[in-house]
Amino acid sequence: MTPGPPRVCTAVLHWTLAAESAEEIVGDLHEEFDAVAAARGIRAARRWYGSQVARLAGRALFHRATDGLRRRRSAVASRHADVHTTNPGDSVMRSLLVETRQSVRTLIKRPALSGLVIITLALGLGANAAIFAVLDALILRPFTIPEIGRLVMVAETEPGNSADTRETVSPANFADWKKQTDAFEHLAAFEWWDVNLAGRDEAERVSGFYVTSNFFAALGVQPALGRTFTADEETRGNHRRVILSHDLWERRFAGDRQIVGRTVLLDAEQFEIVGIAPAGFAFPLGTDLWAPLALDAKGAARRDSRYLSVIGRLAAGRTLDDGKAQMAVVGDRLERQYPEVNKGRGVKVLTLVQGMRDQGLGPI
Description:
Elements: H1 7-16, H2 19-40, H3 42-79, H4 81-86, H5 88-109, H6 111-140, E1 151-156, H7 171-180, E2 184-198, E3 204-211, H8 215-219, E4 225-226, E5 241-244, H9 246-253, E6 263-266, E7 269-276, E8 289-292, H10 297-300, E9 309-314, H11 320-337, H12 339-342, E10 347-351, H13 352-356
Parallel strand pairs: 3-8, 5-7
Antiparallel strand pairs: 1-9, 1-10, 2-3, 2-6, 2-9, 4-7, 5-8, 6-7
Helix pairs in contact: 1-2, 1-3, 2-3, 3-5, 7-11
C-alpha cells in the first residue's frame, strides 16, 4: 500500500480552514498527492504536500487575523464617532490606544502566527541593514577622510576607450599637470610598494606606498605622532624615511611613543621613522606604511612609463567641473607636445570615491 500524505499536515489544514471547505480541499490534495507520488516518488510527493499545506494554512491564518482586526476597527470607529466629532485631538489618541490594545491581544491569542510575523520582520530588517552596511562601506562612505567632497582622483584615459578607463600616469606628465593647473590646492602622487619589515619580532611582508611629500596635506591628514615628509626627502639618498600606520605601530611596536626618530629595517635598508598616522587612516587600500616617492632625473623625465596614481584637493572656490575643464585643456596640450607617447590619451577627473572604487563594483 502506498504511504499517504503526512497526517500532521492534514491536521493543520483541518485546524486552519473552515470545516465545510477543509474536507473538499483535503480530498483534492490527496488525489494530487497520489499523482505526484506515482510520477516523482513518495518523498517528492510529501515535500509537495507540505508546501501546499503551508501555503494554504498561511493564507487562511492571514485572512482570519486581518478580518478580525477589520471588524474590531469598525466597532471602535462606531463607538467613538461622537468623540471624534467633539474632540478630534483626543479621539486620535483614544483610537490609537484602543487599536494598540486590540493588536496586542490579537498577537497574544495567536502566538504561532505572531512568532512567524516577528521572525519574518526581523530577518527582513536584518538583511536590509546588512545590505545597506555593505553598500555604505563600499560605495557611499568608504573613506573617513575630512572634507572628502574636495578630493578628486586625476587619471589618464586609454586611447580609443576614453569613456570607461582610468589609467595611471607617467612621472613627466604628472610634473606638467602640477605646473600647468591652478584648480587644485594640491596634486599628489603615489605608487604601490610591497616590502619586508624586520624589527623586534620576525620579519613580515607589509603593504606600503611611495608618496609625494604633499600626499598627507592633500588628504587633510595630520600624523598622530611626529611629522609628514618634506620636499627634500623626495630626493634619492635622502628618501629613507617612513610613516607607520596606527595599526602597524600598535601591533608591531606596542604603541611605543618613543618610536619616532628610531630606525626600522625595510627590504634590508634602514629607514627612519618620522611619524605615526592617525587611528583609522590607512589610505589607500589598507596601507601599513608610507615612504617618500623619490625619483632620479632619468625616472622623473619618463613619459612612456605609467605607474603613478594621482589625487588632488580642489582649491578654495573651485568645483569638480572646474578641475575637469582645466585638466582637459592640459591633456590636449600634452598630447600635441608629445604625440609619440600621449596620442589619444585624455585626462579624467573623478571624485575620490569614484576614482578609488573598483570599476567592476558599479554594475554589481
